[in-house]
Design goal:
The complex is a heterodimer.
Chain A (H helix, E strand, L loop, with lengths): L4 H9 L3 H10 L1 H12 L3 H14 L10 H18 L28 H19 L3 H12 L4 H8 L3 H22 L3
Helix pairs in contact in A: 1-2, 3-4, 3-5, 3-7, 4-5, 5-8, 6-9, 7-8, 7-9, 8-9
Chain B lengths: L3 H9 L8 H18 L9 H19 L4 H8 L4 E4 L21 E4 L1 H7 L14 E5 L6 E5 L4 E6 L8 E4 L4 E8 L2 E8 L5 E3 L5 E3 L7 E7 L2 E8 L2 H10 L2
Parallel strand pairs in B: 1-6
Antiparallel strand pairs in B: 2-3, 3-4, 4-5, 5-12, 7-8, 8-11, 9-10, 11-12
Classes of the chains: A mainly alpha, B alpha+beta.
Chain lengths: 186, 247
């Protein structure tokens, strides 16, 4: 039987290092996605530090709460802190990963090379628009869409009211639509 | 008109973020290397399961100590009810007084072990294989504090029930170092430094000073509602040995 997050949390809180490692491993990729969206290439460092912080404060985590939003709160805090100390003169360089068709889990495996290339280009446009967003807008996009947190969980992770997240998301999506609309010029 | 939200979710799965394969491995290494340091030589193989669990907790905590230590996190995680391990800027430093026993506040009294047992709220435990100590009791501390003075060390026991408002503060002055170690099968602290003063708040909220040995390091742990301190040893192994011998 595969242990649930809750079961792993219990064992980790009792001092089981392997349970702790397995637990964070489950959420490593989504943590990296959030970190990458906020700080770019420093994401690995940020997630590493966030996981250490999470290990340290694990005894304070209520085991009946969902683990991923709690972990991503720590990741977001670490990332935002790192972002504040970065030089702002250069825009964040975010890139789409170019994988071959066989590795694509998200899109149909039967896509042609041309279709895959077009899809990647479309994604790169969207990612460029995301990277150009103000930090706060990009943060809500990362948590809500890259990590698939609910609006309430996103608000909790960013320690702001749900209403603020709602309006920030609406504004971010409007900005993205405007940026993408400007691209579509034939 | 594209479905922007769906596109964003899809985008999240195609980010060129770092691979991060090292992250969990490095986390395990950071926790495991401190595990080795936390183990004492007296651990026997059949207690390895307990030692590993304890050392794991201690290892996680040692990470907490290596990065600027959060006093509350350490005390919280160790369940050290009556002590705060703080930095000088966080704890009010009392006017330095002498450690001459005759200058002790009047409510601290010297007495026999039997009399001391009546005066505190917890069973007093003594180390094995040592001669009878000189006993002082401070009944001003809620629950009571007893100091057992032996020729080469002092063992201090103080009640640490969770609902006590006043608590002892252990002042850790620079240069000093706090390390999590395993003591009697549970996490404890080995506090090294050149100078220890022990201010505390009595039940009236007055800042007082307890008698203390001016030299040597402190081994501190919490067990059964009592916080223990072994003071006066230079080497942790000797302090741990006394700790292990407590009945």
């Amino acid at each position: 039987m595969i242990p649930t997050d809750t079961e792993l949390v219990g064992r980790a809180q009792a001092g089981d290092i392997e349970a702790l490692c397995e637990l964070v491993e489950r959420h490593r990729i989504v943590a990296l996605r959030v970190g990458y969206a906020i700080v770019g290439s420093e994401a690995e460092d940020v997630v590493q530090e966030a996981f250490v912080r999470a290990a340290r404060s694990l005894t304070r985590f209520r085991t009946d709460a969902p683990f991923r939003p709690w972990l991503l709160t720590i990741v977001a805090n670490e990332a935002r802190s790192r972002r504040r100390s970065m030089s702002r003169r250069e825009a964040l360089q975010l890139r789409v990963a170019e994988r071959d068709a066989n590795n694509e889990a998200g899109m149909g495996a039967t896509g042609s090379t041309e279709e895959i290339a077009m899809a990647n280009e479309q994604r790169q446009w969207l990612l460029h628009a995301v990277a150009s967003l103000p930090d706060r807008d990009r943060e809500v996009i990362a948590l809500r869409y890259f990590a698939d947190l609910s609006e309430a969980e996103t608000a909790s992770a960013l320690a702001c009211p749900a209403g603020t997240v709602k309006s920030r998301l609406a504004r971010a999506l409007a900005r993205l639509r405007a940026a993408l609309g400007a691209e579509v010029v034939s | 008109m594209i479905d922007l939200e769906r596109e964003l979710r899809d985008l999240g799965e195609h980010l060129d973020h770092p691979d991060g394969a090292q992250i969990v491995r490095q986390l395990r290494t950071r926790l495991s290397t401190t595990t080795t340091a936390a183990r004492t030589r007296s651990q026997r193989p059949r207690r390895r399961a307990v030692a590993t669990a304890v050392a794991s907790i201690a290892a996680v905590l040692l990470v907490a100590v290596a990065i600027p230590p959060s006093r509350d996190a350490i005390a919280d995680l160790l369940g050290l009810g009556s002590h705060e391990v703080g930095r000088p800027d966080r704890v009010a430093v009392p006017h330095p007084g002498s450690t001459d026993p005759s200058s002790l506040p009047p409510r601290i009294s010297s007495r026999s072990l039997e009399s001391a047992r009546q005066a505190v709220d917890f069973p007093i435990r003594v180390p094995g294989g040592v001669a009878a100590p000189q006993v002082t009791v401070d009944s001003d501390v809620p629950g009571g504090l007893v100091a057992l003075e032996y020729p080469s060390f002092t063992l201090v026991e103080v009640a640490s029930p969770p609902d006590v408002a006043a608590h002892l503060a252990k002042l850790v002055g620079p240069p000093s170092h706090v390390r999590v170690v395993a003591v009697r099968g549970r996490p404890g602290l080995w506090i090294t430094g050149t100078h220890h003063e022990i201010p505390y708040l009595d039940r009236n909220g007055t800042l007082r000073r307890a008698s203390s040995r001016p030299t040597g390091h402190v081994l501190l742990w919490d067990e059964g509602g009592v916080t223990y301190r072994v003071e006066g040893f230079t080497h942790q192994a000797a302090a741990s040995q006394i700790a292990s011998s407590i009945g």
